[in-house]
Every structure is written in structure tokens, then in C-alpha cells.
Recover the amino acids of this structure.
């Protein structure tokens, strides 16, 4: 009973040998602060990873859309259609192959 009363009166922090107790309390407090900051740092990283993943999904969608547009623009039928409006058509004679003989 006497021991509980001394703890409630915080006598362990004001006695002569209280310096040892203060060091332990300070050490435990520093460890608690480090643990809390580590937890907050991990939470920040998780939120950043989630934001980057959603940005990656958006960029992948833009990439697929751009690739689809590029494939449409590269088709021969599309190119001939554009060039026919300018008066240019496909060649009526096939191209001639030029070869060089090494000496």
C-alpha cells in the first residue's frame, strides 16, 4: 500500500536517486518519439505510392490512346486518303531496284 502511495505521489522522481529514473523516462520518451515518427513516415510513403500508382494508371491509358491514334495515322489507307485530297495518288508503275557492284 505504501508503494502505491509513493508512486501516486511521484516520489520516485524527487528522491535523491531520481536522476536514474529521469534518465530512463527520457530514454523511453525518445524511443516513443522515434517510433511515432517512423510510423508517420511509413504512412506518408504509403500515400505517395498510392498516388503514384493512380498516376501510372492514367499515364498508361494516355499511352494506349496515343498508340491507337498513331496506328490509325500510319495505315496506308489513311495516308492515301489524305494525299488524294491533295491530288497525289499511288504510283502506277512499280519502283526500280538499283544495285551497285563492288569491284
Amino acid at each position: 500500500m505504501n508503494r502505491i502511495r509513493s508512486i501516486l505521489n511521484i516520489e520516485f522522481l524527487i528522491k535523491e536517486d531520481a536522476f536514474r529514473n529521469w534518465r530512463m523516462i527520457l530514454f523511453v520518451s525518445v524511443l516513443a518519439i522515434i517510433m511515432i515518427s517512423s510510423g508517420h513516415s511509413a504512412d506518408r510513403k504509403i500515400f505517395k505510392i498510392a498516388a503514384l500508382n493512380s498516376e501510372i494508371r492514367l499515364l498508361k491509358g494516355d499511352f494506349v490512346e496515343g498508340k491507337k491514334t498513331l496506328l490509325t495515322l500510319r495505315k496506308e489507307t489513311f495516308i492515301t486518303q489524305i494525299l488524294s485530297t491533295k491530288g497525289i495518288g499511288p504510283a502506277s508503275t512499280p519502283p526500280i531496284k538499283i544495285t551497285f557492284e563492288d569491284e
Summary: Helices lie at 2-8, 18-74, 76-85. The first helix runs from residue 2 to 8.
